[in-house]
Amino acid sequence: MDCVLRQTLEREVKLKTGHPFRLPHFPGEPLPPRLFTSTYFDTVDFRLARLEVEMTSGRPTPPAPLEDLLFALLRREPLRAIAKLQTRRSGIRIQPLDRPIADVVVDRVRILNTRRVVGHLNEIEVELRSGKEKEFAAIVTALREAGAYDGDSRPKVFQALNLNFSSPCLPESAPFSERLKTILQKQLRDILLHDPGMRFGKDSEELHQMRVGIRRFRALLRASRVLLEPEWYASLQEELRWLGAKLGTVRDQDVLIEQLYTEAHILPPAERKMFERLLTTFETHRSQARRQLLDTLRSDRYLDLLSRLERAAQAPALRDAPESSLIHLAAQEFKELVKAGKRGTADPSDRELHQLRIRTKRTRYAAELALETMGKPAIRFVRQTKRNQDILGEHQDAVVTEERLRQLLHTTRGVKTAFAIGQIVERLRARRRRTKAIFPREWAKLKKRGREVFAL
Fold it and tell me: Which of its termini does the chain have fewer beta carbons within 10 Å around, N or C?
């Protein structure tokens, strides 16, 4: 099955039009006209629409493997057809002097009930390609002058069914409990949004982003732990740790294999070919770990955890405690990070650097969650935490890769193969020395940026 999962990220503007509407004259080439019918499927409570997940398969009914890909979203609930829209699409690619500035697409949509038309939607979408912001603004202005106007920005199926799942913006005076719920809900959406792509398995970044979503959820809970019921917090953290470990096993294999193939390029062709044959062992381990992960993600335990996360995002178990803020929680994480750095030796061990990386990551996530209420110094601080995290991550990747290569060396015979492994190990050691040499300077910058934000 050839499925595409999409989340809209382009710079675009949507406008409404009356009927009839004529496009202004723009230089360029007409887009191929299309007539197509879209059938939308969802659960009774619109779980897919709420997460804005879109899948295309070219079939009038959902293909059988679809429910496997959407297992975390459907939770064994059946799919049903919720809407059918017939779209007549036309438009133009605006490109003076053969430079594509933007696409202007006109959709005239009929809302169908069986074969009967029960409503109409007329919409223009302007999507910036290689044009500049001024050119983009001029196109939108020309369309408005021709009669287009601001309208409903919701997806067409939302308009057809009169659905609205947008989250209201919280005022500055909103209590911490409301801000916590809003952010937890966003983190849960991020986890669920990457679950289908991770199952599809074509892009390792989907697994990585799902794991990041879990880490951020854990980081926010951890930062808020003094305000949460202890048993509730500990139990939920344990389940999130379990899921993160399952994803981490596969992710670590992805990183290891990618790094080894990269390092193999330094070898002469004959030795590289010999070395890459050895890497099939790691690829086999990765395949086994992925199969185990997919079994985990079809389990009742996983479904139970998702239900718990939904309840947590709607009503976290807060205990009676003084009101706090996201900034205060981020400041506490930074304070603990600084303490951890002071406990390190002048020549920190690999383990100490790894632990510092974990704490840096926690601090970064907590600070990112509070960015809306902080200014430019906080942006610089977050940027520095990411740099430190990347440096320490490079060091840890080198440590783990060297350890795995040493294990491989014990099972390998042949002088040439051992020599190839030795060359790569030496490069990894040089990388560790380099990262340890530059880290003190970056650590000092991080502390400086943090103190500018938190005044500690």
Answer: C
